[in-house]
Amino acid sequence: MKIKIIWLMTASVLLIALIGGCKKDTYTDVPGACPVVESTIPVNLATNVPIAQVITVTFNKKMDPNSILASSFVLRGLSVVPGTLSYNEANATMSFVPTTTLAPNTTYTAKVVAPVRDFAGSALQTDYIWTFSTGDTLSPMVITTDPVNNATGVLLNKIVTATFSMPMDSLSINSTTVTIKNGIVPVNGTVTYSGTVATFSPTSTLASNTLYTATITTGAKNKSGIPLGGNYVWTFKTIDTLPPTVILTDPINNASGVVLNKQISAKFSVPMDPLSITTTTFTLKQGTTTIAGTVTYTDTTALFTPASSLASNTLYTATITNGVKNKAGISMTNNYTWKFTTLILVSPTVISTDPVNNATGVPLNKVESATFSVPMDPLTITTTTFTVKAGAVSVPGTVSYSGSTALFTPANPLAPSTLYTATITTGARNTLGTPLASNHVWTFTTVMLVSPTVISTDPVNNATGVPLNKVVGATFSVPMDPLTITTTTFTVKAGAVSVPGSVSYSGLTALFTPANPLASNTLYTASITTGARNTLGTPLASNYVWTFTTLALPPPTVISTDPVNNATGVALNKIVGATFSVPMDAATITTSTFTLKLGAAAVAGSVSYSGSTATFTPSANLQSGKTYTATITTGAKNQSGIALVSNYVWTFATKAPLGPQPPDLKSVARFGIIAGVGVSNNAGFSVINDMDVGISPGARSSITGFPPAIVVNGALYAADDAAPVPAMLIQAKADLTAAYLFAEGASTPAPATISGDQGGKTLAPGIYKTTSTLSIQSGDLTLDAQGDPNAVWIFQIASSFTTIGGAGGSVILSGGASAKNIYWQVGSSATIGDFTAFKGNIMALTSITLNSNATLVGRVLCINGAVVLTSTNTINKP
């Protein structure tokens, strides 16, 4: 059998090589993925190579380091160069470091010796050979020979060849430069040259078992007249022509007790010609009867594998005829014959069965078994050799074998109160091929069945007020087969709708655990079907059915909220909560069922649920001074699926905004600029975004510099425009005057008195009053809303107001402050400095000027005089 395995492996390897083109050993690989040498240092035909050069070879893929041996690389000049070979897997590079420096002005041949292989086992297909020189020129070199140096067993009719590293001058390749000698005696022959190969054809066959020396002298030159660097010499030995002999057999001659599945082998003294090792030259006989079989050959051993097991206690004769030949074609002198006798067999027996013979009360799920006296051949233990029958009717089933025991597993439970016959036939054989002496037969009778019953249930039949988390149970009269107690045989339904759940079984009790709480005030039907069987395989006589009704539950309610209904002064970072009367289904507490609104606008936020409390967390702080409405809808349900009877709604008001009540701009809020007598853009491309520009009582001719100034998403209006513009402007000016007077007279909370330069200060919301001028000069003024986006500032400035660019002069907003809630009431004129960034609504009595490149988020509202944009100003809607 071993030889068969080796032959199959070899055949597989050859097949892979043929398909993929890669030489292989025992590896498996994707066909066609052969490694190749991708590059070398020095490159092929390189000259002037440094004498300290390290030779490297880079492959196209990572190679198996175990395949790269010292013999995997050869460097030769006038002789083989010793050195150290290493491999770097990271860059797939092999490196050779010569032990000493290379000789100057010398040509070298480097060779990567196949088969080095990659990790998949694919091998380099042929030796990779290249040449280089440490001088200015490349001398020709012999790179391969056939036979190779030190070859043995060379055939006597061998034609000797040598391959050069480059094309040679054919006239220099002759019987003077290419010679073969036996000792000092020249061998007669002819020399030819083709391509890069020189051929020496001996005139007569070589002598056997003889050492020959082949030489190519420095008289051999390439086409440029450059000779070999030195004579190239190699040796080989011819084959020994003594007749082969058989030196070992298995079994040995006159062996006894030979096993019946024996492979017969013969080992030769020398390698043989495989074509001469056949069923004609290697035979096995019993007396004069030839035994059929197959013959294989590997290394120096021939194997005869009988087609079937040998007979027991029988004398066999094996013969190797003199038709076998060694690789030189020399036959054995005489036939070689040896004899052996096979062992005497004792038939196996069945030593025990289960059930035993004539057993009664056998369970219906019984697996029948038979134990043998010795190990058996598993291939002979089948449904043909191991059968169970009820009368003449075969029982379907499967047969298995382990250790010394065969098992028959019926496909279905056996019939009750029935006599069965089990048989092991003589087709069952032991591992030596010996059958039972006779069929082994035994009988048994199955149990008489009494159907199991359900003796109690929980809840009992017609029970009421059953808890919603009830685990439903049924207790049987006898132990049951757990594999038959499943969600198919034990079900609970509400009407025709099955309740999802899991079923378990322990002792005598089966339990049905619903996946979710049961519905309240609902009639349920539980069933155990006849698919439930006891441990003997006996089913219930009929389905067992009982009913029960769950308790009635009141709907859930909201019992408290935070904030409470109609609460005031609620913090702006408030998380809104609602507590229910009972635990709720968390899946129903969402942003759809728990909402918060400001008027009709939904407040963005997230909803969570824990214990009995739902919480709504706004994504941002609430607005001050606003009334919010929170709602829990009827989509919220308790864990029994019962919803609120109606939506639960409550309201609360947030704390008042910081600072005073703001002036109401009313209709003048639409204007980014409004003036009395003139609006001018002196230079540059100023822009007013998302607001109008107006003048009243001034005429349109008093609006100058538009363009290049532009109004985006707004328009220019003047007192002399067609109706209804004049009336609209008069109303806007009236609303501006009212807002101005409101800001001027605001007194709650009490105004804080300020004066002079406010640069570098930070002011909280409130009213700030000065009895003279006010400026922002030595730094920026920061207005901090302290987290209240509705916080208000009113600046009451008795005289002029000026911001000066340079070290500061801008208005900075922090803490959520908004420019729309900042009001600058100026008693005379306001001037916004160069390159400053201003915030808020300027309401000036006399005039307003924006200096060069000043920007403003707010409004420029002048009651009497003019508004001047000096150069390239921007006004954005707050």
General description of the model:
The protein is flat, with a radius of gyration of 55 Å. The model is unreliable at 1-21 and 23-30 (pLDDT under 50). Helices cover 5% and strands 41% of the residues. With 878 residues, it is mainly beta. The chain contains two helices and 75 strands. Strands 53, 55, 56, 58, 59, 60, 63, 66, 69, 71, 73 and 75 form a twelve-stranded parallel sheet that branches. An eight-stranded parallel sheet has the order 57-54-74-72-70-67-64-61, with no helix packed on it. It has a five-stranded mixed sheet with strand order 9-16-15-11-12, with no helix packed on it.
How would you summarize this macromolecular structure in one to three sentences?
The protein is mainly beta. Helices cover 5% and strands 41% of the residues.
Q: How is the topology of this model organized?
A:
Blueprint: H1 2-20, E1 37-41, E2 55-59, E3 73-76, E4 83-88, E5 93-98, E6 107-112, E7 128-133, E8 142-146, E9 151-154, E10 160-164, E11 178-182, E12 185-186, E13 189-194, E14 197-202, E15 211-216, E16 232-238, E17 246-250, E18 255-258, E19 264-268, E20 282-286, E21 289-290, E22 293-298, E23 301-306, E24 315-320, E25 336-342, E26 350-354, E27 359-362, E28 368-372, E29 386-390, E30 393-394, E31 397-402, E32 405-410, E33 419-424, E34 440-446, E35 454-458, E36 463-466, E37 472-476, E38 490-494, E39 497-498, E40 501-506, E41 509-514, E42 523-528, E43 544-550, E44 558-562, E45 567-570, E46 576-580, E47 594-598, E48 601-602, E49 605-610, E50 613-618, E51 627-632, E52 648-654, E53 671-675, E54 678-681, E55 687-689, E56 692-695, E57 703-704, E58 710-712, E59 716-718, H2 725-745, E60 752-753, E61 756-757, E62 762-763, E63 766-770, E64 774-776, E65 781-784, E66 793-797, E67 801-803, E68 811-814, E69 822-826, E70 829-832, E71 837-844, E72 847-850, E73 855-862, E74 866-869, E75 874-876
